[in-house]
Amino acid sequence: MADLSVHLPALQVVVPLVAAPLCLLAGRAGLAWIIAFAASAAATATAAALAYITIHNGTISYHMGGWPPPWGIEYVVDTANAVILLLVSAIATVVLAFSPASVAKEIRPGSQHLFYCMFVLCLTGLLGIAVTGDAFNVFVFLEISSLSSYALIAMGGQRKALTAAFQYLIMGTIGATFFLIGVGLLYIMTGTLNMADMQARIAGIQDSRTVVAAFAFITVGLALKAALFPLHLWLPNAYAFAPSAVSAFIAATATKVSLYVLLRFTFTIFGAKFAFLNLPLNWVLLVPAVIAMFAGSLSAIFQRDVKRMLAYSSVAQIGYITLAISLASSAGLSAALIHIFNHGLMKAALFCAMGCIFYRIGTTRIDDMAGLGRQMPWTMTAIVIGGLSLLGVPLTAGFISKWYLVQAALQADLWWLVILIALSSMLALVYIWRLVEAMYFKAPPPGLEGAREAPLSMLLPTLFLAGANIYFGLDTRLPVAMAENAATLLLRGQM
Fold it and tell me: Is the CA virtual torsion 62, 65, 69, 74 positive or negative?
C-alpha cells in the first residue's frame, strides 16, 4: 500500500481515463454505469487521500515515468488543487449515483453507454487540468474535458441541445486557442513548459511585451472557459438544454476548474505583483464581476425555465468568485476558493432536483411546477435548501461564502462592495421566491395533479447534496482550512 500511495497523483487521472474506453466497449448501459461509478468512486477516494497527505505533509510532486522536471511531465498536488480534485470527483460520484434513472429517461437506449464514456472522459479532463504541473498538459486536458462536454450537451432530448453544444464548441474553441497562444508565447520566452520552471525563468523577463501578451491571451482564454461576464454567452443554453445529469455535473465543476487555472497561472507563474501592480488586473476583474453580480441575477429573474434561471444565477455567482480574486489578498483568495467549493454543492443540489422534477413531469418551466411543493415534498425541500444557500442564509454553505467575501472586502477598505454584494443578494431573493411561490402557493396545472416523488435512486443523491449545503454551513473546518492554506501558497507563488 505504501508503494501504491506514491502513485496516487497518477492514479487520479489514469483510473477514469482507462474507464472511459471500457464504458464504450461495455455496450450496455448497466455495465457502463458500473464501470463509470467505480472509477469515479476510486477517484474520490484518491482525491481524499491526496487532500489528507497535502494537509499533513505539504505539497506532493510526482514525476511521470520517473523523468524529473523540466524534462518530464510533473503532477503537483497542494491544498489549492486538492480542493478542486475533491470537489470534482465527489460531485461526479454523487451525480453518477443519481444518473441511471435520469439517463434511461433522457438518453436514447443505444447511446446510454456512450453517455457514460463521455462523462468519465470529461471527469478525466477536469482532474487532469487540476493535477498537472505542465502548461501544455493543461491545454490537453482542457480539450479532453471540453470535447466530451460538447458531446454530453448534444445528447439532450431537445433539438436546441445541438445548437447549445455547437455554440459552446465555438466559444470553447476560441477560449482554448487563446490559452494555447499564451502558452506558446511563454514557451518561446522561457524554453520550458513545466509550470514551476516557467515561474522561475519568467521572473527576470516580466517587462517583455511578449510576456504581457501571453498573460493577456491566457487570461481572456480562461475567462471564456470560466464564463466570466461578458464572455458567458455559451453558458445559459448549455446548462438549460443538456441532460439533467450533465447540467448538474458541469454547472458544479467545469467553470470552477477554469477559475482554478486562472488562479494558478496568475499567482504562481506570473505572480501577484506582475498581475495586480504592473498590470491593472484588479480592475479588469472587479468591474465585470460587479456587473455580472447584477446582470446575472436580473436575467435570472425574467426566466421562465428554471434551468435557465439557475444558469444565469451561475453567471452572478462566478461574479462573486471573480470579485474575491480581484482583491488579490489572502482573505480574498480564501473567499474565492471557499465559494468555488460551496457553489459547486449548491448548483449540484439544485440541478439534481430539477432532474427529479423533469423525470416526473417532463418539463422544468416554473408555470408547470405549480403545486409541486405538496406532491414532491422531499424534492422541494432540496430546492429550498439549495436556494437558501444560494442567497447566503445563515446555517448554509452559501452564508459562509458571503461572510468571507464581505470580510475580504472590508479588509480592503472597500465598504461599498459590501453594499453591492447585499443588493445583488436581494435580487437572488426575487427569483428564488418566484420558484417557491409557484411550488407552494399555486394550484397544479391540469394534467399534473398526480405528480409524485422521483425514484429513490435520484432522490437520495439530491438530498445528500442538499444536506451537504447544511453540513458545510455548520462545520466549516475542512473547506476553510484548505482554502486559507491554499491562499497563502498562491500569494507566495508556490507550487
Answer: negative
Dihedrals φ, ψ of 305, to 5°? -100, 130
Q: Please write the tens of the pLDDT for every residue from 240-258.
A: 888 999 999 999 998 999 9
Confidence of residue 111 (pLDDT cuts 50, 70, 90): confident
* Assigned domain for 34 exists: no
pLDDT at residue number 59: 84
Q: Give the separation between CA 417 and CA 409, rounded to whole angstroms.
A: 6
Separation between Cα atoms, residue 255 and residue 239, nearest integer Å: 12
Q: Does residue 325 sit within a domain?
A: yes
pLDDT at residue 493 in the model: 63
At 86-102, the pLDDT tens digits run 999 999 999 999 999 99
- Position 495 confidence tier, pLDDT thresholds 50, 70, 90: low
Q: Tell me how crowded residue 99 is: count the other CB atoms within 10 A of its CB.
A: 30
Q: For residue 281, what is the DSSP state?
A: H
**Amino acid at site 354:** M
What is the per-residue DSSP string for 136-181?
Answer: HHHHHHHHHHHHHHHHHHHTSSSTHHHHHHHHHHHHHHHHHHHHHH
pTM above 0.85, yes or no: yes
Residues 423-436, mean pLDDT to the nearest whole number: 89
Residue 60 bridge partners (DSSP): 77
Q: How many domains does the chain contain in total? A: 1
311: domain range?
287-495
Q: Tell me: pLDDT of 66 over 90.
A: no
CA 10 vs CA 118, 131, 224: distances in Å = 20, 9, 28
Q: Provide the β-strand partners of residue 77.
A: 60
Q: Flag whether 388 is in a domain.
A: yes
Distance CA(138)–CA(270), nearest Å, equals 16
Could you tell me the CA-to-CA distances from 301 to 120, 198, 294, 325, 419 in Å, in that order?
34, 45, 11, 26, 20
* Banded model confidence at residue 448, pLDDT cuts 50, 70, 90: low
Cα–Cα distance between 224 and 203 in angstroms, integer?
A: 27
Q: Is residue 448 part of a domain?
A: yes
**Strand-strand pairing, 60-63 and 74-77:** antiparallel
**In the block, which residue shows the cell 494555447?**
180
Residue for cell digits 468512486?
41
